[in-house]
């Protein structure tokens, strides 16, 4: 029996259910050593900003139980070089590409969307309103209904093509469902969830935070139950809004949990650092998990865990 | 970018060598592509391990068509787990990774400087240089004699080996840099190669640059992925255009020109770095 692994995020058709996660696969090129990136659901590129950005000081990483803390701080070449080098490479190699954008201000998000609007080869736009590695919590737009909606409304006004806009949400809020509702009302076609959780590790020999940026984003299997919960709650409230689920997915079994919670597709993030072939492996394993349970497609299990009431 | 392979490799030997471990991994397809300075990233723990990230080790030796060898020290939970592995155990490895040492185009005198088990890649390098007809001087330093690695093998591979220890328990009492200038002078060295802790590399690069000698330093930075996607292992390096950028030690490195790394600014973002934060801005 062959399992239909195709799925879709709203209007975006995906040949495979596993995507990379923003910030965990650069712009796809390095992963090409380990598999054909054109066969992935999509490559979600590292969040790009308007200008080149150096990121935060090192140490930028601390391994934690079943996870890691990072404070990269959106290091990147800026939008022009990204378009010229990274997007060009992805397009040339036939990769389904989701471009993630990050701005320091609402206006910057608008400018980025406007700049990318005419570029070919963009399957979806992911709007990273939830990166924790910025100087001020006030810049984590997704922590607040008004700023989250304002960013999405501004991006929507600059984005005139049919590729969906996905808003990336943080679980570091009191009520993720109401933030999700705000961004959907503001024009998001779908949601990417979850971003990392804000954390800290302290070096007790040096008696100071381990990371150069002091705080960092916690990711990996350690946060998976938080992510599954968030996807479940948001899918229950917004059953017609497609969700790209992520947060510590390590196996096909984990991916199936997210689909059952209501995700239409999944991103593989931190696990790629330890296993660069994970996005392909997990798609294969997901097929086996579905087959074992007598399912024939990814689509039929999306939101399945809600049926029991 | 190197063309790395991810594969399951069998341990064919694992033995204690002084303060360190020497491990041989069967990896025929990888061994053929290994150059001095390349590294391997090894997954640690069992399938459901709570340690998600690989451990990176410089490759000590490669036997074409057979195996690669690494030297490691028991530092944390990952390397402690590795030390419990037996012959026949299988490890998920990725190699060869990184930018290796650049060999001189012509025959010249070279000085290889290593601290602790930073000497791991130096035997391969010394042999490659000798094959080119270079004169090879080696300086090995450690806190104490028991933290030295590979002295005897390097005596075979190189023309001369000088040992320094902080406590004087072996060789000359002092640091590698206490003897470096003299050895550069005596041998008329054109290149200094170095591998070891960052403070040592900084000091070695300074001496080399002061003597107008080109240096190649293999840096040690904490890495999450080893393949260039995470942007964790960056350090400030001056490019050909004179601009400082935060570059990845796993892909652009681990070997850098000693005069291009901004050693005093490691762990910071120098204000003139491309894309550095603007005070008061984002």
Explain the overall architecture:
The complex is a heterodimer of chains A (309) and B (282). Chain A is α/β, with parallel strands linked by helices and 309 residues long. Chain A has a single domain (7-55, 73-197, 219-306), classed as Alpha-Beta Barrel (TIM Barrel). In chain A, 30% of the residues lie in helices and 18% in strands. Chain A contains eight helices and 16 strands. Chain A has an eight-stranded parallel β-sheet. In chain A, strands 5-6-14-11 form a four-stranded antiparallel β-sheet, with no helix packed on it. In chain A, helix 5 runs parallel beside helix 6. Chain A is globular and about 50 Å long. The model of chain A has no long low-confidence stretch (mean pLDDT 95). Chain B is of the alpha/beta class and 282 residues long. Chain B has three domains: 5-97, Translation factors (Elongation Factor Tu (Ef-tu), domain 3, Beta Barrel), CATH 2.40.30.10; 99-218, Rossmann fold (3-Layer(aba) Sandwich); 224-277, no CATH class. Chain B is 19% helix and 33% strand. Chain B has helices at 28-31, 77-83, 122-131, 151-157, 176-187, 198-210; strands at residues 5-17, 20-26, 39-42, 55-63, 67-72, 90-97, 109-115, 135-142, 160-165, 172-173, 191-195, 214-218, 234-238, 244-248, 255-257. A seven-stranded mixed β-sheet of chain B has the order 10-9-8-7-11-12-15, sandwiched between helices. In chain B, strands 1-2-5-4-3-6 form a six-stranded antiparallel β-barrel. In chain B, strand 1 (5-17) and strand 2 form a beta hairpin. The longest helix of chain B is centred in the C-terminal third of the chain and has 13 residues, at 198-210. Chain B is globular, with a radius of gyration of 19 Å. In chain B, 51% of the residues are buried. Classes of the chains: A alpha/beta (309), B alpha/beta (282). The interface between A and B is large, with 47 and 41 residues.
